[in-house]
Request: fold
Amino acid sequence: MYKNIKSRIIIVSIICTFIIIGTLSFFYITSINEIQNILAQEGNNTEILNKINNIEVQAKNYIAIIVIAFILLYTVISLILSRYIICPKNKFIKGDERAELRDKLNEVSSRKNQIETILLHMTDGIIAFNMEGEIILINPAAKKFLSISPEDNGFYDIFGKFNLDINMEKVIYLESWTSTEQRIQVDDRYVKVLFAPFKNQEDRPDGVIAVIQDITEHVKLDNMQKELVADVSHELKTPITSIMGYADTLLEGGYDEETQNKFLNVIASESRRMARLVTDLLTLSRYDSNKKKTQKESFDLGELVKKCQEKLAIEIKKKGHKVNCFVTADVPLVYADKDDIERVVLNILTNSIKYTHDNGEIKIYVGFVYNDAYIKIFDNGIGIPEEDLSRIFERFYRVDKARTREMGGTGLGLSIAKEILDKNGGSIDIKSKVGEGTEVVIRVPTKQ
Reply:
């Protein structure tokens, strides 16, 4: 564009020069002709006429030379301007335009890569559909959450199989429609899908976007909470019913001392059971709300285990078990809440004693590995089925509910043990086989 403007300026300048030269030449030649006519009328002056003719010829030659010189001069000027001024400037301008275009393309590419990276690593699923319901964008999380196959290419291909009361028209055109959030179960996973329209630059609907969130853990926690309420109600209802029944029977009177004592023993046993249950629930509640502060200190783990064994000596003797404790190495002092760890050890040992047949064998090993001290408790008891091992730390979960209630268990002991060890930086692991026995490994950190 700039080159054309410069060329036009040069051409106009040449034309104006030609007009000026032509006008001057015209007046010059006309004047000579008039002088020649006057002299011809006045007399026969051949010499003067010849000189005038020569001057006219010379003038025409000079004019021709000047015109040619101007043409050559402007041609040279045009070439110089075109080569050294116009073209370089035009190239410079085009170079700037190319650089600006390249920068814009790089910026667009960078933003595109950023968006793709964000979508790729998002934990939530994202699917965008155009107005025809075709997928224009989808990330791996969405494919995983909704089990999307390569054949699912549209809105209704994906969500139609879940029998949802939703369609794109409602999402796009009904602004007052509030049912844009749907909960879907996909196999053993629960997801929440939020539908929302998006618009183009002209503020017109351009499609629908679906945001998928995995709420499986929330659903599980909600179900666990409901189960906890039901379990607590059931666990409290059973002893309360027994206490009320036996108390009402005693109030009726007419029973001998032996029967009364029997009824009173049942009432006392059920009362202690309720007290243990309430105590365990309060303990879990304190851990859940972080109200239980751990008082960590350094202490000898081997001495603690032997002390727990002594506390349970009566129960061990009643069942005739053979219990041996071995300290396998020079175990350094552990750093944890001593009362909490004692409670865990007592709980595990009590379980081994309860669920091992009379005259059974229990072995306890205390050792050290890396930065943790460990306690291994082996028994040859009834064992735990493999399918139940993954759930034994759940609250109120029991492998055999009838046997557990009969032995006075609340179903919260292992849950409390795991909470305690988590708070103290330790861990607990259980391996077992039905009819062969159980192995429990407790780890406690030795460094602050």
